[in-house]
Design brief:
785 residues, 4 domains, mainly alpha, 9 strands, Tetracycline Repressor, domain 2, 24 helices
């Protein structure tokens, strides 16, 4: 057993020794560690084994050295021989080296110079290469500075973009490039500020130039309307060639509108058509828009621009306080508004998205409401119809101009109907003054015509036709006064003036006809009627004038149908149309005639009262003068002359004769009744205490004179004793108060009767009698106790 273990240990040690001999020294550690991991004291046996192996190798080395010793000795001998030659060779080499060093010293210096030059050359090449990269950057930066100095900001932004994306990255390692890169954002902000400043200057400038832009646009619109009018006239003649017409650089088609009478000068028509670009420099807006777009801040710019334009719109829409005083105030107001929206329309079409159609529509709706409110307010202050008409023309041109740019203007034309009412009111006020002046200057006497030319002149101004008068020889008189043809002419002038406003309102002939008729009705029923009523009530208008006014109103009433024909000829609307408005002149002149008739009766009665006030009866006189009172004779003479005016009126026209006869009869009857009542009231005066027989006789003479006047037929046409009946009550009282015999008869008015009618107390001697005036028949004597 022990032998086997010894054999295995020897074998293991032999293996380890072989491994140590064959392996690298660095790998011996693990092999030696395995020796200590074996049985105890094994390393001692291994050491013994190792010593034995070393001794074995030493014996082999000794054998090897003994075998080669003679060769070694021979080699040493040979080496000693060579030593002398080597020393000699060493001297030669040293000398050669010395001589070589001396000869190569200059070459070395030149070589070093060449090396230095090569290094410089390499550095220069590198520098040139780097400069070739830097020079474009510097050139672009220099170009950027030049563009900024010349205010080419959009190009400068493009240059900055190239610098950042192309040039600076190539040489970003250099300090100057870093400085450039740091400066570029600051330059961008400066460009934004400068461009925004330019935009503010533009906004301020456009506010100042809006007036000129609007004036040009409205003038072109007016020329366009004039052009359309000329085309329409040529079309009506059957031959014309339709040319192309451009308004503000945009083509518009004719819209068939009604045209004003006024036309532009040929020189204005031949002027070069100016556009908004010709009057305003829009480059600041384009430039600023492009800059903000490049900088990625377009939305900020759009919001700022729209906000500022809204503020400017509100300022433009604010009118001057005295705008309503002159048409220039309205024109300037409209020019500014048109200029504002022309600019916005140009911005809308020239830029993409800076302003939108929704934004301009919002601005226009806001502006339209403000414009309508302003025009309503200021037009109400206008009292000159010419100014209102010019305002209407301006509104039409204003609406047509903006309609050409696509803005809806229907509300403006609706406003014109309100302005039309204001225009009609101012016309009515103006024509009221005209009518008053005509009435004041009228002589209220028939128009004398001495020649046929004068007659034709009157007939040309007023539709008067009378066969009897035409047959008469010259000179002759026409029944109406000179105010009649003047009034008729002025009514036609009013219709013309009203028609001027109706033009260009885009309304049908039927609507225009209706407008003309309604305004004419207002003139007749309100203005002319009021003037006639005021004229009739004037105190200086006498009976003769009132009679002539009646005749005048009759002729004007008959002329109303000619006015209707006149309107029909203007509008070409048949009067038989269902909705055609009729003229109300008939009722107007009838009312005026009735008022004149009533005023005649009133003035006659007033005149009678004036004469009655002159009566100076001596109620206690002993006996009468034997003739009628002077005041009464004057009164009767006045009545005779007055009624002769009625009877001497031209009676060649049956209507005139019947009219004058009726008025004369009514006036005569009214005057006689009023005279009778006034004389009766003199007897019934409560202040009258006693009446003598002489006074009664004098009063009876006056009553007789009145009866003679009534029986003399001062106005023809009364049947029988109709006129005398006006004095029947007065005659009855006079008969009662005038007995056939009288012995100291005294009539005393004792007391007022408690009934409505005042009684007269009459007594003879000691008896008293009562006579109440109850009927036309003589009342019985009643005893009084």
């Amino acid at each position: 057993m022990a032998e086997n273990e010894t054999l295995e240990c020897i074998t293991e040690h032999e293996r380890i020794l072989q491994e140590i001999e064959s392996t690298d020294t660095a790998c011996v550690g693990p092999t030696l560690r395995s020796i200590y991991d074996d049985q105890p004291n094994a390393h001692k046996r291994f050491m013994e084994k190792l010593d034995a192996r070393i001794r074995n190798h030493d014996r082999e080395i000794e054998k090897m050295c003994n075998f080669h010793h003679q060769g070694f000795v021979d080699a040493i001998t040979e080496l000693l021989k060579v030593r002398a030659d080597a020393e000699k060779l060493m001297g030669q080499v040293t000398d050669t080296n010395r001589r070589l060093q001396e000869a190569g010293r200059e070459v070395t210096a030149q070589t070093e110079e060449v090396i230095r030059c090569r290094i410089q050359q390499r550095n220069m090449a590198t520098t040139v290469e780097k400069l070739q990269l830097c020079i474009p950057v510097l050139e672009m930066y220099s170009k950027l500075k030049e563009q900024l100095e010349s205010k080419r900001y959009y190009a400068a932004l493009k240059t900055m973009e190239q610098l950042e994306k192309v040039y600076i990255p190539r040489v970003s390692q250099y300090r100057f490039c870093q400085i450039m890169a740091e400066n570029l954002p600051r330059l961008r902000e400066e460009i934004k500020e400068i461009s925004m400043s330019d935009l503010k200057d533009f906004l301020e400038s456009i506010r100042k130039h809006s007036d000129k832009v609007g004036e040009t646009a409205m003038r072109q619109a007016q020329q366009h309307r004039t052009f359309n009018s000329a085309v329409a006239k040529q079309a009506s003649m059957g031959h014309y060639t339709k040319p192309v017409y451009s308004l503000n650089g945009r083509t518009h088609t004719p819209n068939g509108q009604l045209m004003d009478d006024d036309t532009g000068d040929e020189e204005e028509a031949d002027e070069e058509i100016l556009t908004a670009q010709d009057l305003v420099d829009f480059s600041p807006v384009y430039r600023c828009l492009h800059i903000y777009t490049v900088l990625g801040d377009r939305e900020t710019f759009e919001n700022y621009y729209r906000k500022q334009r809204k503020k400017q719109a509100r300022l433009v829409l604010q009118p001057q306080a005295n705008m309503h005083e002159t048409v220039e105030g309205y024109r300037k107001y409209f020019n500014q508004i048109v200029g504002f929206f022309v600019v916005e329309d140009h911005i809308l079409h020239a830029t993409r998205g800076l302003v939108t159609r929704a934004f301009t529509d919002e601005l226009w709706n806001m502006a339209l409401s403000k414009i309508i409110a302003v025009l309503r307010t200021h037009s109400s202050y206008c009292d000159d119809p010419d100014l209102v008409l010019e305002l209407k023309n301006l509104i039409v041109i204003f609406a047509d101009t903006l309609q050409g740019y696509g803005f809806p203007v229907n509300r403006l034309f609706d406003l014109l109907f309100e302005v039309r009412d204001q225009y009609n009111e101012t016309l009515l006020k103006k024509w009221a003054l005209v009518f008053r002046e005509i009435f004041e200057l009228d002589n209220y006497s028939p128009i004398p015509v001495d020649t046929e030319e004068e007659y034709k002149l009157v007939v040309s101004r007023f539709p008067f036709h009378d066969a009897e008068i035409e047959k008469q020889d010259f000179p002759k008189k026409l029944p109406m006064s000179q105010s009649v043809p003047q009034i008729y002419t002025q009514v036609k002038e009013f219709i013309y003036a009203s028609l001027k406003f109706s033009e260009s309102l885009h309304r049908s002939s039927t609507e225009i006809d209706d407008m003309l008729r309604k305004s004419t009705n207002l003139l007749l029923t309100r203005t002319l009627s009021s003037c006639l009523q005021n004229l009739i009530k004037k105190p200086h208008i006498g009976l003769t004038e009132l009679v002539q006014i009646i005749i005048n109103t009759t002729h004007l009433e008959q002329a109303c149908r000619y006015l209707e024909e006149f309107i029909t000829n203007i509008t070409n609307v048949s009067p038989e149309t269902v909705h055609t408005t009729r003229l109300y002149g008939l009722s107007t002149f009838k009312d005026a005639r009735h008022a004149a008739e009533g005023e005649i009766y009133t003035k006659l009665n007033q005149k009678i009262d004036e004469f009655i006030q002159l009566a100076d009866y001596e109620w206690g006189m002993a006996e009468s003068d034997g003739r009628a009172s002077g005041y009464l004779m004057d009164l009767i003479n006045f009545l005779r002359s007055t009624f002769q005016v009625f009877t001497h009126l031209p009676n060649n026209n049956n209507d005139h004769a019947s009219m004058s006869g009726k008025v004369a009869q009514t006036a005569c009857m009214s005057a006689c009744k009023h005279l009778s009542t006034s004389l009766m009231q003199m007897l019934l005066d409560t202040e009258l205490k006693q009446i003598s027989m002489g006074a009664i006789q004098q009063f009876n003479l006056d009553v007789i004179q009145c009866e003679l006047f009534a029986s003399s037929e001062p106005v023809p046409g009364f049947q029988g004793d109709t006129l005398q009946l006006a004095f029947i009550d007065l005659r009855q009282v006079s008969n009662i108060l005038t007995p056939s015999t009288s012995n100291n008869t005294m009539f005393v008015l004792v007391v007022k009767w408690p009934f409505q009618l005042s009684p007269v107390f009459w007594f003879t001697g000691s008896r008293k009698f009562l006579f109440p005036l109850l009927t036309q028949a003589q009342a019985p004597y009643l005893p009084f106790s």
